[in-house]
């Protein structure tokens, strides 16, 4: 049975939980939850800060520096991992490498019309990282996607114009033709090389 029985207690717990979820999404190594709770209580009760403002600023600056360094290290590792994967993948006979660095493998060759930059298309796709982990899949959802050819990542825009309707390709997309240094929200880290199976169903 819950220890939070009144509506006020339950709402209060909900507030704390939402704050905790936000904190977990923007946390740092070594965070001290009792200290967080103490700071929350002192601020709510209007008490003087237990830590001098100048010390808080120094701590915030140092933690920010550590986070940035960790992000840069992770980005460099991801970039190198992607480059190594693509270099090895390009050696396979079934893989074609375009001038931009896009790699693709033909799974099914269609005979229909090819899209242009003015086209809107319908396609099924299955997107993974180079380790095979899935980050997005219309196949899993069971619902094809529709979008304009220039409205997607550069690797897709290039590949779609090579694909007659009915074609299914496996794309190996370097980070500079994907989401690059920005990444894509929480789902795709910066500098990630990506792999897609794309089946062009129709030009709409």
From TrEMBL:
Q: Name one GO molecular function term.
A: isomerase activity
Cross-referenced PANTHER family: FKBP-TYPE 22 KDA PEPTIDYL-PROLYL CIS-TRANS ISOMERASE, FKBP-TYPE PEPTIDYL-PROLYL CIS-TRANS ISOMERASE FKPA
Instruction: Report the residue ranges that make up the PPIase FKBP-type domain in this protein.
Output: 118-204
Q: What InterPro entries is this protein classified in?
A: PPIase_dom_sf (IPR046357), PPIase_FKBP_dom (IPR001179), PPIase_FKBP_N (IPR000774), PPIase_FKBP_N_sf (IPR036944)
Top EC class per UniProt? Answer: isomerase
Catalytic activity as recorded in UniProt: [protein]-peptidylproline (omega=180) = [protein]-peptidylproline (omega=0)
Q: Does the keyword Isomerase apply?
A: yes
Coiled-coil segments, which residues?
53-80
Protein family: Belongs to the FKBP-type PPIase family.
| Keyword Zinc carried by entry | no
Q: What is the name attached to this protein's record?
A: Peptidyl-prolyl cis-trans isomerase
Entry keywords, A to Z: Coiled coil, Isomerase, Rotamase
Q: Which Pfam families match?
A: FKBP_C, FKBP_N
Q: What is its EC number?
A: 5.2.1.8
Gene3D superfamilies, from UniProt? 3.10.50.40, Peptidyl-prolyl cis-trans isomerase, FKBP-type, N-terminal domain
